What does this fold into?
Amino acid sequence: RKEVEQDPGPFNVPEGATVAFNCTYSNSASQSFFWYRQDCRKEPKLLMSVYSSGNEDGRFTAQLNRASQYISLLIRDSKLSDSATYLCVVKAAGNKLTFGGGTRVLVKP
Amino acid sequence: DAGVTQSPTHLIKTRGQHVTLRCSPISGHKSVSWYQQVLGQGPQFIFQYYEKEERGRGNFPDRFSARQFPNYSSELNVNALLLGDSALYLCASSLWGGGTGANVLTFGAGSRLTVL
It folds into this structure.
């Protein structure tokens, strides 16, 4: 089983709609969680950290479910510019950050 | 302030050759990590360095090696290149320690390696 798993998508989303997707992790001792965004042929960039109580950053909401070992990302009022691959990142013990395979989101007019 | 810089940006090699990729971290960042990203997949951890010492290693063969210099820049070396080594090699810098900053990676634009 992979340490961090994501639905590769693509999620085809009408502009203005809401989209949500999850990421599961296998190590119950994982301590920190993040979402990174990667545009086509570009480097990943931090979108947001994921806190235990859940957190929002504008149109983006991240949730953590430790009991079921998954994190989620919800995007409200999708914009064309939200089209990207969203990478789930998990940190277990030590300083190694493990990336999921990414979920591709395509926002269409 | 300059971000993370990597060189070269693109390179083409043939099987069996050797390659050296270079990375300069953000000023003030003392930790450098290397990732391999094959097309269509997420980045895979190769190495992490801090204060010139290896602090973490991913599941890669011994053909892969790296080092960090006193100015915190880093090199990734790959020997005896295989077709499967074709990928985007990403360098990321970060702070070090238990604080939040140590968890945030800032990536360079990557070095795209093609092995023929």
Notes: The interface with chain A takes residues 31, 33, 35, 40-45, 48, 50, 55-56, 58, 90, 96, 100, 102-110 of chain B (CB under 8 Å).
